[in-house]
Specification:
This protein starts with a strand and ends in a 16-residue tail after the last helix. With 601 residues, the protein is of the alpha/beta class. The chain folds into 3 domains: 119 residues, no CATH class; 288 residues, P-loop containing nucleotide triphosphate hydrolases (Rossmann fold), CATH 3.40.50; 115 residues, no CATH class. It is elongated and about 100 Å long. A hairpin with a 7-residue loop joins strand 23 and strand 24. The chain contains 17 helices and 24 strands. The strands form 5 sheets. A 10-stranded mixed sheet has the order 14-13-19-12-20-21-11-22-23-24. Helix 8 runs antiparallel to helix 10 and helix 12 packs parallel to helix 14.
Length: 601
């Protein structure tokens, strides 16, 4: 099939067979560089420009087959003087004393061959920029039955990710890597969530699909339901190009730990005043659910000799702890029939356990076997060191009857604020909450509705070396979450320090700005060499996204968040959001007759 070229525009038949579609000629396939079915070089037409990430298309007539379309993405661009033999010739050429021509060439990585007859393009064949339907087919967007926008390409057109590789149909999970502070990992994760919720891909499931976000960086993520006052017209147009509304998340509930020293357990947040609930675990829940192992959530705890002792003590507490009152306090009923004093704080419970383990007469009843005293002492030292970080969230001294559990049923997006907790307490919360949500999904017996879990600092919770309860749960999510509808969106500074099996189970991989040393690690083998170099200088908001259907990662720029990313940007929430959160925060909402009684004033 011949191309008719006039003024740099080719009249041609598109991939779908439509004739007369105009496309800009980019150049011709070079004959001085070897072309293959997987890559080729293009000599750029004088006066034209090809840049990285441009999508180009060429054709070849194959006997017995007909026209074969070869499409690809520009992964390298070069310019040189033809006719120069020495470096100093550049000055003579610039002065006009030496004849030479400037030649630009581009390396193209093939993404699609249609039909699949893998032949190299013919040198001299016309190459043109792919537009509209051609671009969609070159990047496999035309075969994505359920696609969600993930940002804009360098040409300003939308780029998509196949939702089949996010919801568990053909794959699941997202891994986002990049330098802290400049890679915008969390911003991209929230934008991806927003796109999933607002692109229409969920259809009737949109209302019941949930997201659980663990926030560890101040109160920046606590205002996702507030409009961003810095949103400008250019960003709004970007949302329009993606087919998304430029507005904040519609349904958000925040969970925060109790304020230290507050006898009523008021949430420990300063900037947000509505739609916030306290979370903590009573001593009774701590014993009944065998949460002791999550107090030893560091990887080195599992390698210690006292790891078996943790399970023994947890089992004893589950069997022997009895409720004392309605506030979650407990008393431990010992095998001899006596009971310990009532424990109302985590420190009280630790003192009881320590007293039993240091007593020669009672130690064996707790350990279940002869345990060296050194192992017991090591266990107690570690347990005592957990008193200070865990006391604010393991309580038996707060008023009874209040809701203190973290639940994803209150809103579409549930945010667990961890920034005011020590590192050890953060691990405890993440481990216990993930275990509870994973167990809930298992018991439901269905993968729908989906639950998206956003977890930053994945290298801290699932390190490559060692074992821990949290790592076991995250591995379970990565390996079985797809079938249960639990989708992990994990972010980390260094993918090389994250458990390999978790990263390997991520169908979609994303990299923002990378440290130059980290970019050379084998974990980033999915990035071509040129993109690895670009990732070390990438600007905030630029991400490189790889998905199974597209052979080449795509450079994506996502628009500025329409929701507040820090308290200073937060505008007033929409009226509907205010009404919902005000109702959720009303302390009198659950009282009998609260809605029917007419106030006497």
């Amino acid at each position: 099939m011949a191309d008719v070229i006039e003024n740099g525009v080719a009249g041609r038949a598109g991939l779908n067979g439509e004739a007369g579609v105009a496309a800009e000629v980019a150049g011709r396939v070079l004959g001085t560089q070897a072309a293959s079915p997987l890559s080729f070089w293009v000599g750029v037409e004088p006066g034209r420009v090809l840049q990285l990430d441009d999508v180009v298309v060429t054709r070849r007539d194959v006997p017995g087959v007909g026209p074969v379309l070869i499409a690809g993405v520009v992964v390298g661009v070069e310019a040189r003087h033809e006719g120069a033999g020495f470096d100093s010739d550049v000055f003579l050429i610039a002065e006009g004393a030496l004849p030479a021509a400037v030649m630009e060439s581009a390396e193209v990585r093939v993404t699609r061959v249609e039909p699949e007859v893998f032949v190299p393009p013919v040198p001299g064949a016309v190459v043109y920029k792919a537009e509209e339907g051609d671009r969609d087919q070159a990047l496999y967007f035309d075969v994505m039955e359920r696609r969600i926008p993930m940002g804009l390409g360098r040409d300003g057109s939308p780029l998509y990710v196949n939702f089949d590789f996010l919801d568990g149909t053909r794959g699941a999970h997202v891994s986002i890597s990049g330098v802290s502070g400049v890679a915008t990992k969390t911003s991209f994760a929230t934008f991806l969530l927003y796109s999933i919720f607002n692109s229409g891909v969920l259809d009737a499931e949109a209302a019941n699909t949930k997201a659980l976000i663990f926030s560890v960086k101040g109160e920046d993520l606590l205002f996702l339901d507030h409009p961003n006052t810095r949103l400008d017209a250019a960003a709004t147009r970007g949302y329009g190009a993606l087919g998304l509304p430029a507005r904040p998340f519609g349904s958000v509930h925040v969970f925060a730990p109790p304020r230290p020293g507050d006898v009523n357990g008021v949430p420990h947040v300063s900037a947000r005043t509505h739609g916030v609930g306290s979370f903590y675990w009573t001593l009774r829940e701590f014993c009944e659910q065998e949460l002791l192992r999550f107090a030893f959530a560091d990887a080195d705890d599992e390698r210690a000799q006292y790891s078996l002792l943790i399970g023994q003590v947890a089992a004893r507490l589950q069997s022997w702890a009895e409720p004392a009152g309605q506030g979650g306090a407990v008393s431990v009923r010992l095998p001899d029939g006596t009971a310990t004093p009532v424990c109302r704080t985590f420190a009280d419970l630790v003192d009881v356990v320590a007293g039993q383990l240091t007593d020669d007469e009672t130690r064996s009843t707790w350990t279940g076997a002869q345990t060296p005293l050194g192992t017991v002492n090591a266990f107690l030292r570690r347990l005592r060191s957990a008193v200070r970080p865990l006391s604010p969230i393991i309580r038996g001294d707060l008023p009874p009857g209040r809701d203190h559990s973290i639940s994803t049923s209150d809103a579409q997006v549930s945010i667990v604020d961890l920034h005011n907790l020590p590192d050890r307490a953060q691990r405890f919360v993440v481990g216990v909450v993930l275990r509870g949500e994973f167990a809930r999904k298992e018991s439901s017996g269905t993968a729908r509705p989906l639950l998206f879990v956003v977890l930053d600092e994945l290298n801290k919770y699932a390190p490559r070396e060692g074992d821990s309860p949290i790592k076991e749960i995250l591995l379970d999510v990565a390996e079985r979450g797809r079938s249960l509808g639990v989708i992990l969106i994990g972010a980390q500074q260094t993918a090389s320090e994250v458990e390999r099996r978790i990263v390997a189970n991520c169908a979609v991989r994303v990299a923002g700005r990378l440290d130059s040393a980290e970019a050379t690690r084998s974990e980033y083998g999915w990035l071509p060499p040129g993109m690895r170099e670009r990732a070390t200088i990438a600007k905030p908001g630029t991400m490189f996204v790889a998905q199974p259907e597209i052979p080449v990662p795509l450079a994506v720029t996502f628009p500025f968040p329409a929701w507040a990313t820090r308290p200073a940007e937060a505008g007033p929430p929409p009226a509907t959001a205010r009404a919902v959160t005000a109702s959720a925060a009303d302390p009198f909402a659950g009282l009998p007759g609260a809605d029917d009684d007419i106030p006497p004033f």
